[in-house]
Every structure is written in structure tokens, then in C-alpha cells.
Amino acid sequence: MSDKEKFMKILEVIDPRYSKLNLMLIFVPLAVYFELSHNHGLAFITSMLAIMPLAYLMGKATEEIALRTSQSIGGLLNATFGNAVEMIIAGLAIYAAYNNPDITSTMIEVVQASLIGSILGNLLLVLGLAFVWGGINYPSQNFSVKASQVNGSLLLLALVGMIIPEVYSSSTEGNSVIQLSHYTAFLLLFVYFLQLLFQLKTHTDLYAAEGHHDEIAEMSYNEAIKLLLGSTIFVAWMAEILVGSISYAAEEYHLPTLFIGVILVPLFGNAAEHFTAVTVAGKNKMDLSVGIAIGSSIQIALFVSPIMVLFGWMLGVPMTLQFGTFETLVTFLAVIITNFIIQDGESNWLEGSMLLITYAIIALAFLFL
């Protein structure tokens, strides 16, 4: 295949006739225009909408790459590059706080809220949609029980890293919570890499599943890599506009900053996981679907959150693992209900509906908080 043919294949994937979602790519130049014209309210909306099709393209590229791997590695790839959006947004917010100390508290609130929102969105919204969509086509779907038990335990451990700083802050003063967060971040990262070793090396059989290679790849490996890199660059650009316009949008549209961080930013930023996890659930690939949703939450809690704490430490920004009492409580409840639902290794549309309703209640709470 010539270079021109390869380029045409990438153009075919971003063509609106390939996916109607690609029509939303029009919001990319619109976001740039509104940013340059200092219309921050519309820049916020258009950049947030622009991230959706770009995240979809990231998901498409990673899915093509994942077809050449096992389901466990495929789920990890989808979760990792899905969370790349979250890491970019959080990293840019912390860097903004470093450049402008006057907005430090706002930016830390946005980062912590987006991290919590990503965990909630993946556990409740993404997994709920996957269970409902899969349940429409199949009365019952199965996935690895042992893998679910391990993932459930990891989620509970991640909660410890959130609850301890929150409770500790109520019984002490000074910078000790910041120091506790720094050292806890190292321990959470250590657990994350142990989990990778467990999943990809010593216990790969727990995550093995059939039916991953029954699809034919539409793109070559190099084409998928180019699409992934290109969409990631544009996501970073849109994320920079989004972060810079959050405070303006909160004031202009009378929305709580916490609601923007917990609900809106992760909802659009995690679009890659949304589309991929739900799509593969409709194809009865529940190990991959659950691996993306649960794996993404684990990655946010055990990798992205600690990395952001350490990044803040490096820049002198007081980013901590103390997320707030209400935020910690709703995350605890989300982890508990998800654990109950996935422990039997079987899903249906009713369980998906339960997760979605739980997410809706939490979203309303943050809207009126």
C-alpha cells in the first residue's frame, strides 16, 4: 500500500460518512476561533464538544491496535489512552496553578473533581451503558469472575488512599495532609505497577478470554499509530482551551465549578472509553468492556491521581489526595455498588440501569451542591 493510500485510509476514518460523530470535528476550529476572540463561554462549550470526536478517534485507533493483542492488553491500552485526556486536562490545570498562584484553589478543585468524576463516570455511567446495551442484545452476558474479584479489591484499596487523607485532615493541622498525600501517592503507584505485573505477566490466565481476534483490522498498525498521535495532539490543544475557560464558563452559565469538574469534563473527556466499552459490549465482548471501564477507574485512582499529586509537588502546587467528604463518600458508594454487581461475573440490562440511576442521583447532587 502506497503512502497516499495509507493517508486516504486515515481520511476515510475521520470522514462523517464513516461515523456521524465525526461531524462534531467542526467544533475544533470553532473552539480555536472563540478562544482567539476571547469568547471564553463559547470556547468552553465548543472545546468540550470537540474533545468527543477526537476521543472517539483515539478510541478507534487504540481498538485497532488492541486487535493485535490479548484482551487484557487491549483493555489496558484502551483505558490508558482514554485516560490520556484526563491526564492532559489535569496536568494543564496544575500547570496553570503554577503559573498563576491566584487560581490555585480553583484549579486544584477542578483537578480533584475531574479525577473523582472520571472514576464515577467509568464505574457507573460507562459500565452501566455497556451492561444496558449488551443486555438489549443478550439476556445475560458473562465475564471473568476472578478478574472481577481482583479488580474489586484494587478499587477498595484505592479508596483507602482517598479515605485516610480525608479522615486524617479532620484530626490534624498544618501541612501534614500534603506530606501524607505525597508518600501515599508513591505507595499507590507501587500497587499499580504490581497490578500490571500481575495482569500482564504472572496471572495472564485470569484475564484471558476468547473471541478477541474474530474481527478484521480496518487499518494497518502504522496508520493506527498515526491516527492515535494526531488525535492526541488535538485533544491536548482542546484541553488547554477547556482548562483556561472553566472559571469563565462557571460564572457565565451559573454552574458550580464542582459540577463542571465532576460531571461535564469527565463526561466528554472520557468519550473514548464510553464508545469503545459500549460498542464491544454490544458484540458480547464483556471481558474487554469490563476491562476498559473498571481498568480505567483503577488507573485513575492508582496511577493518574498519584501522578498529579507528585506533579503538583514538583511544581510547588499543594495538590493532595484529600478530595472532600462528600466526594469521597459518593466514590465509596459507587465502588461498593459496582463491586456487588460485578462479583458474580454476569451482567444484564437491569444491573446496567441500576448503575445509570445511581450516576444520575450523584450528578443531581453535584448540580445542587
Describe, in plain words, how this protein is organized in 3D.
It is a single chain. The protein is about 80% helix and about 0% strand. The chain is mainly alpha-helical and about 375 residues long. It has one domain: Up-down Bundle (A middle domain of Talin 1). The chain has a two-stranded antiparallel ribbon. Helix 4 runs parallel beside helix 11, helix 5 (about 105-135) crosses helix 9 (about 255-270) and helix 6 (about 145-170) packs antiparallel against helix 7. The longest helix is centred in the first third of the chain and has 34 residues, at about 105-135. The protein starts with a helix and ends with a helix. About 50% of the residues are buried.
